[in-house]
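Changelog-adjacent note: as of this version, every example in the card shows the full chain rather than a window. The one below runs 618 residues end to end.
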Amino acid sequence: MSKNIVFIICISFLLGVHQYDTYGQHQLNRYGTKLPFKIYKTTSNTLSITDIIKSDTLFKSIDSISGKTHPKDIYWIKINLTEALYTLKTDSIWYLRSRNYDYASIFYVENLQLKEKKFGRFDKCSKNTSVLYAPGIPFAPNSLIENRFIYLKLKQVISIEPTNIFKFYYTSDITEQLKEGYYSWSDIKILIPKYLFAGVCLIVFVLTFAFFITSRKKEFLFYSLYVFWLLVYLNGDVFRTNNLIFGGFTIASHWFQQIAQVLINLCYVLFVCHYLMTKKEYPKLHSVLQIIVYILITIVVLDSSFFYFEYFVGHIQIMNIQRIVMTLFGIGGMIYLLLYAKSRLAYFIVCGSFLYMVGALALLFLKIPTYMIAGASLEITIFALGLAYKIHQEQKEKLYFQKESFINNNKALRAQVNPHFIFNSLSSIQHLILADKKESAIQYLNKFSSLMRNLLESSIETTVVLSDEIKLLKKYVELEALRFDNNFNHDIIIKDGLDPDAAEIPMLLVQPFVENAILHGLLNKKGDDKQLTISFSKGTAYIICEIEDNGIGRNASRKTQSKYKESKKSRGIEVTHKRLQLLNPLEEKNICIIDMVNRLGQPSGTKVMIKIPTDTIF
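Full-length structure tokens:
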């Protein structure tokens, strides 16, 4: 069973590891045997191992050294293996186990000479195959100083920790292999949240960064970078980003992981700026956010300089300053948004930030990464929901403005139809008066005023119920019939399956085609068999209106110079085309005009078919 991630997930592996773990704990004591030791703290780096051995009185019990470690302090450790000598004789190689130290050396005897071997993280001497445990330091029983002591020289430079971190164990070769090469069930329970968190981060990072590329919305860019730096900071040890980028654990690789927490906060602040549009919606908060951005950028520059010159005290201090600044800002920012929130977007930030802060503080004080992983996971989820909610709101707003634009455009186009219709009607009244048909002129004027009242009453609406549109058409056709001495017949038909009181269509959409049928088709025809038929039927996704006349046809109409033709070009058909295109831009042929012929192939009229899309047909 190797430590490959596939085997970690595999059920058989888990069961096998659990069994091996039980065996290891009871048979091999995989955590080793604790060793007694004494400690000597100094700031002098000139002392040699020979000086230390001669100064045995310098060593004291660990209980006598209180407080915390400091980057300037050097700790000499004297480990006494007297009580373990009998056990050590059973094997030729044993391992000294402890935690990771930044700089560390072990001293031993070889060929009657004192030797030193470095094993610190920054010494570039040790290779760790486990993502959870520091490697054991091999030693032979016959290499002990004075046949019973191991001397260590340790230095912690990148953190300040309690002195109780110093604990030492010895294990056998087989136990070391078990520790390095296999995971126990308790180890897997530690790794599972990390791998799950990494999977979530990678998916979210890829998706949000891809969305940024397509949408160019900066909140998605900073959110994706925020998730990326979270992954680096919390899971860099598991995925060995040190090895991938820097070839191992070095000062540069540690700087990279440490600076990640500053970049987390920087990307978070920039994400909040663009997500909440603070410059517009929260100008006071925006000013504070700008100051925080400058502070974080300054910290990145200073901390990089501290690492370059190996001024680790400055690094520790500036990281603490950063934590204090971000904690105070986080608390103040959450309170401000709770008090002055202008939309629900603010509550996503408050909720996510609170959970992350709880996890970060738990990591800081309890030293348990799982708490921060849990807090960060919840925050990522909440922020993702917040982004989805914002997209939803923006889409609703976009649709609203599109609808308003459509309504306004439709009103503007319809406004072009109304003057056209009014002008023609007034021309008809003028024609009757000039022809000395006063009675017809008065009758026409009464019908016209009634029609205009209906038009003005419905002028606010862009659509009307089909039954109302038919009433308007009837009044219009009656006016035209009256205008031309009732020399044509007309019918308006509603076919089965269409409810005229339920369907809605744009107002006065059909009228220009009816007008053309009368003026250019029927009035130029000789005889009394002039027929105009208007029918409405139910289509798949349309109301289909057919205007059919048995006039002279379009070709003959173009050649005829009728006294009723307008001297100016009619805009009614052109405007109607535009109105239909607004209603359904995907439909290429909203209007179909058919030139009808009789059995002898002679023109017998014109049929116009109009597809009127509507969401309220059925």
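Structural remarks: Residues 1-28, 562-569 have pLDDT under 50 and may be disordered.
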